[in-house]
Design brief:
Oligomer: single chain
Number of strands: 0
Number of helices: 23
Number of domains: 1
CATH topology: Growth Hormone, Chain: A
Radius of gyration: 23 Å
Strand content: under 5%
CATH architecture: Up-down Bundle
Distance between the termini: 41 Å
Largest sheet: none
CATH class: Mainly Alpha
Order of helices and strands: HHHHHHHHHHHHHHHHHHHHHHH
CATH superfamily: MFS general substrate transporter like domains
């Protein structure tokens, strides 16, 4: 399989040479300079096919498990918790958030590995650990349901395994995102760098799709006993496929040359700790701004994917049935978030060249203004199915510019030698504080305010914070910090 992938890589490289023949003379010189900088031209190049498949399967598995967990929240609450309906849901959302709270630690550890020893090693560790975690969850005993119940110890085991899962996914998205950006031609950068985001979103959608099929085929009792286990077990093969293709990958010239030059100047020092010692303020400010931006991203993703379905099936007075809600949410995730973001990424590559941060600013502005309107439309429930679908789809489409441009923007803000550790920390801290807590916070806001539209104002506030972080990052003082950090890492 690896030999076939390398042959495919050679074909891609031939296509790039043909493209270079059509380049203006100035662009040819730039391309030649990039080749000259490369560290080892005899090293085999990763094929485009292995590149795409390894990213897709890894990110699909990461978010498939989260989608299954969110979708089977009712069944999992009955299997592992006791209490009232809303109390059980809040407890499950608490466990859902646990995996997010440990993500920063996982991102830091895998980021250290990725910046020092290579992106591919970190990505292989991540996908193996994710697959094992999914398998273990599918085999866990329950609290007091079925023949394999062991009491409260089962709940503790669930929390422990979810924590391990959170550690393993801490470097998945960022690692695959960096690897994609470093390995694709400039003319495809937005589309290909959007693949990890779109595949992660599709993974959640696939989790909902599988849960929809299981819900339609099994009784409630069967779903509580073993239906949710089947859903988790079906994700394990994705981990195996992802690992097989990742074993064929090679480090990019961009990363290899940057880390080789840094290692020649600063023997036995890790780039992240070197930056912490020499430019702590710049590293902290840039990472903090990225964390706020990622908070806007992650909260909006999980608001759309995990909470809105529960909103228009459980909280709306005449809500949709559970099966209707899952079907609608799954279709909109694929069409609105995944499909829409890839389409917008193609527009970035082929359309007018606009600074990346303008796309994110426009997206944040639209969501800050219109989020309450979209949620209000969805509150009509089964009285107006078109309002529910239209409100959620409109919000998703307003968000697609952020998804499409986020990868390239994050990479542009941090030097190559620091990207894995710094971005993984920022991204996963944001996931812990904003993404993992959204289902819990939004539900709690509805319960305590008795206003089902109230969570939309929280989302509008997060959109304002995301847009504000972009504006702060453009300030002259912050740009000087960025330049100083670049110079520190390259001199």
């Amino acid at each position: 399989m690896c030999e076939a992938d390398e042959m495919a890589g050679e074909k891609l490289e031939q296509g790039e040479h043909e493209h270079e023949e059509l380049m203006p003379e100035g662009d040819k010189k730039s391309a030649a300079l990039e080749i000259e900088i490369g560290d080892d031209e005899t090293r085999p190049r990763s094929s485009f096919r292995a590149l795409i498949i390894s990213s897709v399967f890894g990110n699909v598995l990461e978010w498939y498990d989260f989608g299954v967990f969110a979708s089977f929240s009712t069944e999992i609450s009955k299997a592992f918790f006791t209490g009232g309906r809303l109390e059980e849901i809040l407890e499950v959302y608490g466990v859902f958030a646990v995996a997010f709270f440990v993500r920063p630690l996982g991102g830091f550890v895998l980021g250290i590995v990725g910046d020092k020893y290579g992106r591919t090693l970190s990505l292989q560790i991540s996908v193996v650990a994710m697959g094992l975690s999914a398998l273990i969850i599918s085999l866990l005993p329950t609290n007091d349901v079925g023949p394999y119940s062991i009491g409260p110890a089962a709940t503790i085991l669930l929390v422990v395994v979810r924590s391990i899962q959170g550690l393993s996914v801490g470097g998945e998205m960022v690692g695959s995102m960096l690897y994609m950006v470093e390995n694709v031609p400039e003319r495809w950068k937005a589309v290909v760098s959007c693949v990890p985001m779109a595949s992660a979103i599709s993974g959640t959608g696939m989790g909902y799709l599988v849960s929809t099929i299981i819900t339609a085929l099994l009784s409630e009792e069967a779903r509580v006993l073993w239906g949710w286990r089947l859903a988790f077990g079906l994700g394990v093969p994705a981990g195996l496929v992802g690992f097989m293709f990742r074993s064929c990958l090679h480090e990019s010239h961009t990363f290899s040359s940057a880390i080789k030059k840094f290692g020649a100047r600063h023997q036995n020092q890790h780039p992240f700790f070197y930056a912490m010692k020499n430019e702590p303020a710049a590293l902290f400010v840039l990472s903090a701004l990225l964390a706020v931006l990622c908070g806007f991203y992650s909260s909006t993703v999980w608001y759309n994917e995990a909470w809105l379905e529960m909103f228009y099936t459980e909280l709306v007075r005449r809500g949709l049935s559970e099966l209707q809600g899952r079907i609608l949410n799954t279709l909109l995730i694929f069409a609105g978030l995944a499909g829409g973001s890839m389409g917008y990424a193609a527009f970035i590559d082929r359309g007018p060249k606009v600074p990346l941060h303008y796309h994110i600013l426009g997206s944040a502005f639209l969501l800050a203004i219109f989020s309450p309107l979209f949620l209000w439309l969805m509150s009509f429930g089964r009285d107006c199915l078109l309002c529910v679908a239209g409100g959620q789809l409109a919000g998703m489409l307003c968000f697609t510019p952020t998804i499409a441009s986020l990868s390239l923007y994050l990479v542009s803000e941090i030097p190559t030698q620091l990207q894995y550790t710094s971005i993984a920390l920022s991204y996963n801290i944001a996931q812990a504080l904003f993404g993992g807590t959204i289902p819990y916070i939004a539900t709690a806001i509805v319960i305590h305010s008795s206003n089902i539209v109230a969570p939309s104002f929280y989302m509008s506030g997060l959109a304002v914070l995301g847009g504000g972080s972009i504006l702060l990052a453009r300030l002259p003082r912050v740009r000087r910090m960025h330049q100083n950090l670049e110079q520190t890492m390259n001199t």
